[in-house]
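Hey, I was hoping to borrow your eyes for a little while. I've been staring at a protein lately and its backbone has me curious. You're getting the sequence in one-letter code plus the fold written as tokens. Would you mind checking whether the tokens look sensible for this chain? Here's the protein in full, and shout if anything looks odd to you:
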Amino acid sequence: MADRLARLSLAVERSVEGLLGGHHRSPRRGISVEFVERRPYVQGDDLRHLDWKAFARSDRLSVKRYEEETNLEATLVVDASASMAYPEAAPNAGTDAPLTKYDYACQVAMAIAHLVLRERDGASLALFDHVVDRVLPTSTSQGHLEVVGQSLLQRDAQGTTAFSAVLANLTERIARPGLVVIVSDLFGDLAELDAGLGFLRTRNHDVIVLHVLHADELRFPFDRLTRFEGMETNGRLLVDAPALREGYIEVINEWRAEVRQLCHRRGVDYKLIDTDQPLDVSLSAFLGARQARLGGRR
């Protein structure tokens, strides 16, 4: 786990250097640090903000939250369903194993958490397949980045996808309007995705969908008779891949267009993330354009 976390952190640190030109800037409300509320302590929080008086009364650790810390809360919602495990690594591949979509999604989530925490805003994490697997409470501590990374790496990509139930559950969990970033291959029922995004938008959340797809899924490079196996179903199909390529690419492009249109109708920002591209290349232009469009608005 420690080695995997170190590799993930290193990849994110390198990528973030290329993202800084397009990252979120947090408008501060003067220099106020007025105490406004408490929340439960989570690993990685700054110990200087522990409320010892509250601990003496309740025997529970809590952290003071301040006015300037409540500007933005970003919830990173990462798909950990079985389809995100593509491509499966060969046995004993070790560190030479190719990045799966879930690996790439972890880097995306960590990079965005890095940018959010760098501005002393709050970041939380939720992992899902057909249910919400785990949720990390919001924290503004820089140490929270390691906690996010550990939670991502403790989870293997498995299970089926159910967008409507998952996003409805998250909508109820998130206390106040904020930024929700969904990182997923979106392999699921689009009507459910539409309904789930509707739940979030009804509560005035600013929503970004980062659509992670592997190069094989985008370009279908297979050049021989190939057997395909479902990752969230038991289906198997043996096909003449070159003969199928043109039709496949047409279908995948139509599906991607439908996803984009769905997000547009819901007022949701959408970005395709190609795992063949370096992370900073994938995100920098999108985040820069988004910042320019939003200006100083939150």
Remarks:
- The first helix runs from residue 2 to 19.
- Confidence is low (pLDDT under 50) at residues 21-34.
